[in-house]
Amino acid sequence: MPQTFLTYAKISESHYVLVMPQWIFRSILNNARVLLLPEKFSDNPRELFSSIVLYTSNVEAKLVRVIQLLVENYGGQVITSPSRSASHVLCVGPDYEQTIA
User: Both ends of the chain: CA-CA distance in Å?
Assistant: First the structure.
């Protein structure tokens, strides 16, 4: 196990929350009305998608569920309505320009 992760684990046990710089940026992008969950922007190297906030549009419901499980399993989050807090948009079909507008 990498030494940096061991250091992270020790600090997190003492109830400090370490976040990635994207947490600050994304919280400000929301006009500070809502502070995003710090757990979703973890500095833990095992949480690959911790800084991803995904919005899907025109994607089949079963596929959205699979994507949601994968993203959330690796620390990210999936939102169900358009929002400025989304860092990524996954859109299928010809209406993608309306989705990102």
Answer: 44
Q: pLDDT tens digits for the chain (101 residues)? A: 566 556 656 655 666 666 777 777 777 776 656 667 777 676 676 777 877 899 998 889 999 999 999 999 888 889 988 888 888 999 887 765 666 65
**Domain extent for 52:** 3-100
For the chain, how many structural domains are there in total?
1
Residue 40's domain is classified under what CATH number?
A: 3.40.50
Residue 75 phi, psi (nearest 5): 95, -5
Q: Could you give the strand order of the β-sheet that contains 53-57, starting from the edge strand earlier in sequence?
A: 77-79, 53-57, 88-91
